[in-house]
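Sample intake sheet
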Amino acid sequence: GSHKKTIHLASFIILLSVIMGVVPFLFAYQIINPLILGQNLEFTRLVILLAGILICLVLQALLGGLGLNMSHKAAYNTLFGLRTSLQKKMENLPLGAIEEKGTGAINKMFVDDIGSLEVLLAHSLP
């Protein structure tokens, strides 16, 4: 629904976070490979690569947290919309139909069934 763009943006941010988690391995390779081959590694290059690793790991954590925060907000707003929509539909039902379902089934619909979508929306999609 209306939170689709936020979910897409959160997915993109989490993708960037994953990339920031892979790049340090490329930098580490650039440090280790010359050492294995017996070549010299300039100190300034080493410092730049180590700084790159640190920056990438910090960005990974920040972007991952931001992406999950955004996806959770969108997920909970979507669940709120589903619960509100379900409530409005139930308000138009005859009282007998609601009593026939029972409070346990209605509670399960509002809490468990809709709540189970949170894992999909907040964790699986992004």
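Comment: The chain has a mean pLDDT of 90. Residues 83 and 89 are 10 Å apart (CA to CA).
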